[in-house]
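Comment thread on ticket #2218

A.B. wrote:
> Attaching the input chain for the structure job we discussed in standup.
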Amino acid sequence: MQTSNATSLTSRHVAVIGAGASGLVAARELRREGHQVVVFEKDSQIGGTWVYTPQVETDPLGLDPTRQIVHSSLYKSLRTNLPRESMGFMDYPFVPRAGEGSDPRRFPGHAEVLKYLQDFAREFGIEEMVRFECEVVSVEMVDNKKLKVKSKRRRLDGDDDLLDEVFDAVVVCNGHFTQPRIAEIPGINLWPGKQTHSHNYRTPEPFRDKVVIIIGSSASAMDISLEIGGIAKEVHIASRSVADDTCEKQAGCDNIWLHSMIESAHKDGSVAFRDGNSIVADIILHCTGYKYCFPFLKTNGIVTVDDNRVGPLYKHVFPPIFAPQLSFVGIPFRNLPFPSFEIQSKWIAGVLSDRIVLPSQEDMMEDVNTLYSTLEDSGVPKHYTHNMGDTMIDYSVWVCFSLSVSLL
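C.D. wrote:
> Ran it. Output below, let me know if you need it in another format.
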C-alpha cells in the first residue's frame, strides 16, 4: 500500500449503511476527509445493536424469512465484557460522564454504551448526516463505476417513499448480530420441546422452573446460564470446546452442569450428550452466534457469504473487484470493536480521497487467496476467517502503519 503524492484530495459522495457504532465513526472519518456523506438508518435513532428493546421476533429461532426482524440482540442485564478503556474512540474516550442514570462501572451496562454513542454523535454533528427510518433495499454497481442505492422511507400514513440515488462509494456498516446461527442437532425435528436463540433472550423469567439446555460457551452463553440458573430447575451447557467425556457441575452452582456437545435429540423429550449422559429438557437455547447478512447487496455472486466467510475481502474491508467503491466496516470479530471500526474507517476515507493508494486488484486477490490458503493449511474452518484473536494486534498495526497513525 502506498501514500499518494497528490496535492489535492478527492471529495466523493458516499453512502454509509447503518448508524450503529461502526456507521457513526465511519461517517465522521469520511466527513473529516472531505467527503459528502449520507447515512441510512432504518431505525428511528442511532445506536444499532446497542438500542435495547424488550421486543422479540415471532420466530424464536429466526428461521422464517418473512418474520418482522428485530435488529438488537441485547438482553436486559447485559454488561460489556470489555473494560470501557478499550471501547472508546481515539479522541473521544469512553469515560464516566456525569448525569442522571450514568453508569460509572468499568464494565458498564448496555445503556451506558448507547449514551456514549449518542454523546459521540452529538459532539461531532453526525446526526445531521443521518436519514432515519430509511432502509436500504438494494445496492448495485452501475456501468460508470458508481453504485446505485435504492432505499425506502416510512411516511406518516404508513406507506413507503422509494428513492433511487447514485453514489461514488458505499460503506457497509449494518452489523452482524441480528441473523441467528443455529446448531445442527440430529433428531431435533422430532424433539417436542421449545427452541429459541439468544437473539430473542431478554430476561430469565420464561425459563422459571424449566430444564434448560444452553448450546455454546461464549461470554453471552455464560452470562445467560448464570442468570437463568437463578430461577430454572436445571441448566445444562453443551460446548464444543471441552472434551467429549466432560460432565461437571459448575463451581458454586447447584443446578448448572457443563457437558460436551449434544449427540442427538429424541421424540420422548430426551437429549443425549457425547459424554454419555441424557436428560429430558424443556427448552434448548442456542447461544451459537450470528450470520453475516447483506440482503440489499447485489453483486452478481462476486461478494458472497460462505459458511460465514464474507469474501473476497482484502484485509476484511475491500472486495478487490469493487474497490474502493464498496467497503465494509466491522467484519472482524474477537477484537476490540470500536477501535477497529475507527481505524478501518480512517483507511477507507483516505483511500476514497486518493490520499492512500490500494494495491492492484490482482495483488489484493493474491493477498486474499494467501490468507485462505494459510487458514486451510492450519485447519481453521471458513467461519473463523474473520476471527482476529491472536492476529488482532498485527492487523491493527498494519492498518495504522498505512495511515501513519499511532495505536497509543
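A.B. wrote:
> Thanks. Noting for the ticket: Residues 361-377 form the longest helix (17 residues).
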